[in-house]
Design goal:
Mean pLDDT: 97
Structural class: alpha+beta
Shape: globular
Low-confidence stretches: none
Largest sheet: 13 strands, mixed
Length: 288
């Protein structure tokens, strides 16, 4: 039976999140995580549904893509479909031809780092490897040390604290209280937590959101940031350690995160918090 690409609609997002949860397991390559959809959900359920693409055969989802923006597609492929030649060929054709409704015309990027077959086909079709990213992982089978600072789990009443730290951590951030509430209303947030770290004076200095994919599966940090006015004091390490502890409490087997390799400070922070650096991965891009 032919493979069909489609959009799930708001009503189909539950099935998509369920598939992504099922596909996560330790030892697998870094790929789209339920938490990635959860973080995108800050724009609302309708916008999230419009940014998702699915590839299905006989009603079974084989791959999921998230358009982080119209020129960037991030993929996840079911473990049993990693060597599915028909799927790989379909994916490449769909991302290459703008009229198929996946990526726009011009320069575009695809993260297919989890599927060697798709990467090989993209390369043969003239796509190029882009700048490297560094995935990192921390095993959570053993207890996590105390982070050494006060950590609070953020609920609706403290949403403004979480969003303020985000905006103070990332230039150009548009994370508002309204968007926090939209994110928290999303399906993936049922197994997520927002954490904020405070210094000795009671100032909010760092924040992170962690996303569980279910017991015994890797949990994701997305995003983590340190207030630009409080950097250089170890708060990045502290909030990352707290994130690992929170994921362990949620039943995650490990904690994973991915950052651009050029961000050496972020890589060093995650390593200092007990994360192990994994082999670099690459998006692929097509010139305009």
């Amino acid at each position: 039976m032919a493979i069909a690409v489609g959009e799930p609609g708001v009503d189909g997002l539950s099935e998509v999140v369920g598939a992504l949860r099922k596909w996560q397991h330790d030892g697998a390559p870094m790929q789209l995580h339920p938490g990635d959809l959860g973080w995108f959900w800050r724009f609302g359920a309708e916008a999230t549904a419009a940014a998702v693409r699915t590839w299905s055969r006989d009603g079974q989802i084989l791959a999921v893509g998230l358009l982080d923006h119209p020129a960037l597609l991030r993929l996840a492929v079911a473990p049993a479909a990693q060597r599915d030649e028909e799927l790989a060929q379909q994916l490449v054709e769909d991302v290459t031809e703008p009229e198929r409704g996946v990526l726009v015309d011009g320069k575009v990027h695809v993260d297919a780092s989890m599927c060697t077959m798709v990467q090989d086909l993209l390369s043969k079709d003239g796509w190029h490897a882009d700048e490297p990213w560094t995935p990192l992982r921390r095993d959570l089978t053993k207890p996590v040390k105390d982070p050494g600072v006060r950590i609070e789990v953020i609920g609706p009443e403290q949403a403004h604290v979480r969003t303020a730290v985000q905006r103070a951590s990332f230039d150009g951030s548009t994370f508002t209280d309204e968007r926090w509430h939209a994110m928290a209303a999303g399906l993936p947030y049922a197994d997520a937590r927002c954490l904020v770290a405070y210094d000795g004076r009671g100032d909010a200095v760092a924040a992170v959101t962690v996303w569980s994919a279910g017991p015994g599966k890797p949990g994701l940090l997305e995003p983590m940031g340190v207030h630009r006015g409080h950097r250089g004091h170890g708060y990045g390490e502290a909030i990352t350690v707290a994130a690992a502890a929170a994921l362990r409490e949620l039943g995650s087997s490990s904690a994973i995160v991915c950052t651009p390799s050029f961000n050496v400070g972020a890589v060093a922070t995650y390593k200092s918090a007990g994360f192990q650096r994994l082999p670099e991965i690459h998006d692929h891009y097509r010139d305009a």
